Amino acid sequence: MFYLAQAMLLTLDLEFRRHRAVISALAQHFVRSARFEAVHLNAFREAFERRLVADYDDEGVVSAREAETILRQAVAFVEAAEAYLRRTGG
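The structure corresponding to this sequence follows.
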């Protein structure tokens, strides 16, 4: 999700290296302008937050059900991002 979001931003000559900056720029330049649905941005943000919890919180456990939801949302994000990149030649 992160690298696809970066690729989308590069179509506007924008480059960011940190997750939070990429998420903010995606919101500003793609969601607000209706180039990308907010549901996909929210999925990206939630996946990032869950990863932080899983990586850095000793009790940060992701259930199988939650993992399935994140995966389903990630697939939808990838499909939407790829569609955008195909439309724009990115």
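The radius of gyration is 14 Å.
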